[in-house]
Design goal:
CATH class of the largest domain: Alpha Beta
Bound molecules: NADP nicotinamide-adenine-dinucleotide phosphate
Shape: globular
Radius of gyration: 19 Å
Order of helices and strands: EHEHEHEHHHEHEHEEEEHEH
Mean pLDDT: 97
Low-confidence stretches: none
Largest sheet: 6 strands, parallel
CATH architecture of the largest domain: 3-Layer(aba) Sandwich
CATH topology of the largest domain: Rossmann fold
Helix content: 25-40%
Number of domains: 2
Strand order of the largest sheet: 1-11-8-7-5-6
Number of helices: 10
Length: 292
């Protein structure tokens, strides 16, 4: 059984990005610049944004963090997005989700210039990705495909079952895995109304679990030799940890891992790749890889 080490892979990719940035600077180019908008003081969002800023440092990027209180109005936030769209020094930016309830998230996402939408959430990027055009792709599915590639997992012709159909993970993952130039797999997507979910999983060569249900994927759902990718990250109480909790994936790792040909751990699997792909998207934005 191979343990797919997302942390080590992400470290290697960030080193590759840093080298590329040094090359750009040596050629007289501009340092890539990522901005992040953070609204409010949600603990999870604070951590994610801090990690993104740290990843920028590791990659040699410039970063700017714009903080606003929960009381910011939708109009004020949209004005901030418009300023970043117009700022030639900013190559790409993200608006950390979730936003306070009084702000329409979709409206904010659609206000972002698709050329700077390094989260890949704008409908133009989602649509371009779906038909195989160059586009910013949502970081988590992009990172999973990269992990599968770097670990030489054969995806072409494989039966891939994806659990979950969210806009940021399940749906784009399905698109990437089915595309000829992507996973080239036969893809089944299961969700909370899929009656044959267990049977589907048992037939899968590759299972990608993204539902946010701790230890949902059990050994009886996994075919011997399958590849299992665990996207889930749920905080579960754990009295043995000083902080009182630990991160639990969607897979019952201890019982599933012995069956697998390869599997990602939680933490240290998909998570570190996600921020790393945001960095790759920012580099692509700075180089105008997808748009003029
Ligand atoms: P989400 O928006 O809550 O979507 C969950 C999906 O799972 C939905 O499609 C839902 O079905 C399905 N689902 C829920 N319970 C189910 C069940 N019992 N059986 C079958 N399907 C079920 O979640 P998300 O944003 O995609 O995130 C999923 C998990 O991945 C979460 O734990 C999240 O924290 C984690 N995550 C991790 C990373 C990372 O970088 N590691 C990134 C993003 C997300 P319906 O559509 O029918 O409701």
């Amino acid at each position: 059984m191979t343990l797919i080490n997302g942390k080590a892979t992400a470290t290697a990719i960030k080193a590759e990005i840093k080298q590329e940035v040094e090359h750009i600077i040596a050629q007289g180019g501009k340092r890539p610049h990522l901005a992040a908008i953070l609204v409010g003081h949600d603990g999870g969002s604070e951590t994610y944004v801090a990690n993104k800023v740290r990843a920028c440092e590791e990659c040699g990027f410039q970063s700017t963090l714009l903080r606003y209180e929960d009381s910011i109005t939708e109009a004020e936030l949209l004005a901030c997005v418009a300023r970043l769209n117009a700022d030639a020094d900013i190559d790409g930016f993200i608006v950390q989700l979730p936003l306070p309830r009084h702000i329409d998230e979709q409206k904010v996402i659609e206000a972002i210039d698709p050329r700077k939408d390094v989260d890949g959430f704008h409908p133009i990027n989602v649509g371009r990705m779906a038909i195989g055009l160059p586009a910013f792709v949502s970081a988590t599915p992009k990172g999973i495909l990269e992990l599968l590639r770097r670990y030489d997992v054969k995806t072409s012709g494989a039966k891939c079952v994806i659990l979950g159909r969210s806009n940021i993970v399940g749906k784009p993952m399905a698109q990437l895995m089915m595309q000829k130039d992507g996973g080239d797999a036969t893809v089944t997507v299961c969700h909370s109304h899929s009656p044959q979910l267990k049977d589907e999983c048992r037939q899968a060569d590759i299972i990608i679990a993204a539902i946010g249900r701790p230890a949902f994927v059990t050994a009886d759902m996994v075919k011997p030799g399958a590849v299992v990718i665990d996207v889930g990250t749920t905080r579960v109480a754990d009295a043995t940890r000083q902080r009182g909790w630990r991160l639990q994936g969607d897979v019952d790792f201890d019982n599933v891992a012995p069956l697998c040909s390869s599997i990602t751990p939680v933490p240290g699997g998909v998570g570190p790749m996600t921020i790393c792909m945001l960095m790759l998207n920012t580099l692509a934005a700075a180089r105008h890889d997808y748009y003029e």
